[in-house]
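Lecture notes, part 5. Sequence design as translation. It can be helpful to think of inverse folding as translation between two languages: the language of shapes and the language of residues. The source text, in structure tokens, appears below.
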């Protein structure tokens, strides 16, 4: 059975997409069969995986509206080594179109049920909101990976996300839990970041992943080449950290 994880955080610009594409590439690198689902109409995860969002014939939009299966709509990115179910601006319309449909929050789950045996991991890159799109992601997932920057308001933002996950767990998806918090864009020279990092560990214990992703310009440059950092520059510190993170996640699976 595939492990299905949402990469989510209600804040924008915290590193969700960077984490999703690099974790996908890291998992592929250690031999896992991976599907990356882009649930953000911005399509950054799609472009960052070497798939041109403007050229998509079928996308996650078609899957949500049940006019295509995942097998039909996903493309394999040769360069990255994983499958991509892409998104583009069309997806913004799905929000409205889903409103009147039955089981509107379960569409992605139903589609993934069929594709389950084709993958070891499914990673879902969520948009920065609790929209019908994110809800589809949370209903389809076994768990949530939360990338976060160790900044002053980080813990406050987390309360909202934790409450959302609790609500979805109680009402829609009893499987859902927080898999872990991933510290990203970390700069150990900044005392405040160290302090917040310690607070996180004190508060969330082993829900905080051991691997820390450093701030690394190569990770920020990679998307302009249509690649995850892990593929663009495997020797960069940030890329190595994501491969380590992929290994940590694989090791954690039996304990989940
Ligand atoms: P989100 O998907 O949450 O909006 P992104 O992954 O797009 O966030 O990241 C926001 C910005 O931060 C992007 O410009 C990205 O390249 C940059 N970024 C993300 N992670 C890192 C990192 N570890 N080091 C340096 N820049 C990063
Ligand atoms: Mg994003």
């Amino acid at each position: 059975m595939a492990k299905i994880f949402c990469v989510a955080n209600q804040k924008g610009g915290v590193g969700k997409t960077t984490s999703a594409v690099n974790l996908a590439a890291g998992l592929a690198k250690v031999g896992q069969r991976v599907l990356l689902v882009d649930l953000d109409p911005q399509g950054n995860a799609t472009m960052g995986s070497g798939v041109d969002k403007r050229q998509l014939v079928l996308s996650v939009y078609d899957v949500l509206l049940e006019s295509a299966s995942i097998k039909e709509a996903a493309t394999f990115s040769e360069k990255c080594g994983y499958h991509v179910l892409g998104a583009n601006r069309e997806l913004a319309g799905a929000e409205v179109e889903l409103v009147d449909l039955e089981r509107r929050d379960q569409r992605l789950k139903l589609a993934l049920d069929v594709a389950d045996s084709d993958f070891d991991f499914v990673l879902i890159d969520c948009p920065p909101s609790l929209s019908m799109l994110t809800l589809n992601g949370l209903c389809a997932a076994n768990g949530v990976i939360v990338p976060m920057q160790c900044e002053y308001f980080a813990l406050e933002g987390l309360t909202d996300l934790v409450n959302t996950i609790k609500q979805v767990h109680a009402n829609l998806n009893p499987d859902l839990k927080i898999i872990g918090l991933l510290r990203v864009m970390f700069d150990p020279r900044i005392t405040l970041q160290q302090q917040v990092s310690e607070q996180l560990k004190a508060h969330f214990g082993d829900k905080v992943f051991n691997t820390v992703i450093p701030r690394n310009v190569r990770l920020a440059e990679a998307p302009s080449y249509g690649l995850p950092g892990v593929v663009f520059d495997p020797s960069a510190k940030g890329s190595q950290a994501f491969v380590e993170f992929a290994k940590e996640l694989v090791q954690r699976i039996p304990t989940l």
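The translated text above is only one of many valid answers, since several sequences can fold into similar shapes. The chain has one domain: 3-255.
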